[in-house]
Write the structure tokens for this entry.
Amino acid sequence: MAAQPKTQIHRIDLNEVRRRMKDLVFVDARSATALSRNPLQVPGAIHVPIKNLDKAMKQVPRNRTLVTYCT
């Protein structure tokens, strides 16, 4: 069995987001209700409610840094 890459979790600020935009995958983890209240999203973000994130990880690209956000 191949070793799994280590997961690192840390916050990044807006300046880092701007510098690394092409290397990032954004996941909007808000519920459908929260999204309907405020439909603004990062352009190109994938909407996956936090309660479904484990199941949806197969659809998220593994070769880029994942950035999740919610309200």
Observations:
- The beta strands are 24-28, 46-47, 65-69.
